[in-house]
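Try it yourself: sequence plus S-adenosylmethionine, in.
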Amino acid sequence: MPRKRKQNKNKHATMAQTADRHKLYEQSVQCAEAEIDFVDKTFKRRRKRRAQVLREDFCGTANVCCEWVRRRRQNQAIGIDLDPEVIDWGRQHNLSKLKAHERTRIALLEQDVLLAKTEPVDVVSAMNFSYWLLKDRKTLFEYFCRVRESLNNQGIFFLDAYGGYDSHREIEEEREIDDGGDGFTYTWEQASFDPITHRLICHIHFDLPDGSRMERAFSYDWRLWTLPEVQDLLNNAGFSRVTVYWQGWDKNGEADGKFKPATHADADAGWICYLSAEK
Ligand SMILES: C[S@@+](CC[C@H](N)C(=O)[O-])C[C@H]1O[C@@H](n2cnc3c(N)ncnc32)[C@H](O)[C@@H]1O
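Structure, out:
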């Protein structure tokens, strides 16, 4: 008797309906290794010792926390995010892949970064522009003050920013992502920008190999903070030294991925930089 075939419940489902948006995000947006390389090296250069305890604010799937505890046996990480769904995803897909001794060195807190109280840490990291969710000056200032309080005496806060004249435009940028299979297309859409308030609404879309599209897989309602504003607020919050790190150019005229301290830079259509703020 022929075996009854298992019915494929997803027979008519498209790849966009079944793909995991967090996985696509990690493959296309995040580069936890590069972020941690930068944080680790800069801390060592500034403090003449290795950082051990890192707090990742707006941690999402806790990819950076995982990378941090994998680096050295002494490293500990605390991840903070408001959203239980994303934290759960991180536990199931990222923390589950760690060795037991690595996993025990991560604590994930489902909390608001504006209220969270944690042990004094060496590093607070807030990457991929997540602090842009804090849209008014008073709230961003409060957040920077809280970060400063949560650092130990040698602690350093790391964050990033982007800008340039393209950041004021309503545009879409596409990038092909090689995921070791058929690949997919990542689209960054700046859907609206208000020059008076600097409110910036952005979306991420994914186009999958079967032709289906995951529309607005992620959406962001941000304030596009400028670098002078961010530096001023960090200084006002009491940080002793604030540094901007800018990229150079390679021989093909592309950004070289090497971020160095800078106090001036050339006008550019689209730039990304890191900042550090020392307690
Ligand atoms: C763009 S994701 C950042 C993910 C990851 N950190 C990265 O670098 O790609 C922003 C995250 O911030 C979280 N979030 C938003 N407001 C928050 C708040 N006030 N406190 C803690 N987490 C917050 C959201 O749930 C979301 O997971």
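One thing you can check immediately is this: The pocket of S-adenosylmethionine is lined by residues 29-30, 58-60, 80-83, 86, 112-114, 127-128, 130, 133 (CB under 6 Å).
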